[in-house]
Design a protein that fits this description.
The protein has about 190 residues and is α+β, with helices and mostly antiparallel strands. It is built from 6 helices and 4 strands, in the order H-E-H-E-E-H-H-E-H-H. It comes from Pedobacter soli.
């Protein structure tokens, strides 16, 4: 049985980070359980990229900026009229979680402990059956001003620089920084 402290904190966090207006633009972050560096494998990155493309073409996801780091995904997003951003992200996380677990079983992954970690995370959460890949929630923060939008856009694009992965934001393949620098990125974006 969950402690009252856990239930209360979960409720507070859910209230603090919710999509309150489905028509607004949000900065969101979704993180792998335990901050595991899952996206060091190209096959797992491809699951995310293809899923985001599908969400754009079929579910109404509008991506303004994005950056897939080894353990988490940052995006600035909204939904097309009549669609719910919270539903799109929920479906994205559910699908990618299952697909990544399946892909891990198919590729020659040297980190055999990964599936054990994801299975352990599922056992500690009643919502999951066999594996839990993503942490709960996606921490949506509404972008209420142009200054705040610019701040989050810079934050997203500079994340790989801060992590020491690249020296220039547009050199990181798994980001929209290349789009904003005039190049052709992996995903189409709507410029802010």
């Amino acid at each position: 049985m969950k402690s009252l402290y856990y239930v209360f904190n979960s409720w507070i966090m859910a209230f603090k980070y919710t999509v309150t207006d489905q028509n607004e633009i949000y900065f969101i972050t979704t993180t792998v359980v335990g901050w595991i560096d899952a996206f060091t494998r190209k096959e797992l990155v491809e699951v995310i990229i293809e899923s985001l493309k599908y969400c754009q073409s079929e579910k109404g996801l509008i991506i303004y900026a994005w950056c897939l780091m080894p353990s988490h995904l940052h995006m600035i997003v909204s939904a097309t009229e009549g669609k719910k951003l919270s539903d799109i992200i929920r479906d994205f996380k559910k699908f990618t979680s299952k697909k990544i677990i399946k892909t891990l079983g198919e590729i020659n992954e040297s980190r055999e402990w990964l599936l054990d970690k994801f299975a352990f995370a599922a056992r500690t959460n009643i919502k999951n059956k066999d594996y839990k890949f993503w942490q709960d929630g996606f921490h949506p923060i509404i972008l209420y001003s142009n200054e705040f939008k610019d701040q989050k856009l810079d934050y997203i694009h500079n994340n790989p620089i801060e992590a020491g992965i690249v020296t220039e934001a547009e050199y990181y393949n798994y980001s929209s920084a290349i789009n904003y620098a005039g190049g052709m990125g992996l995903l189409e974006v709507v410029y802010m």
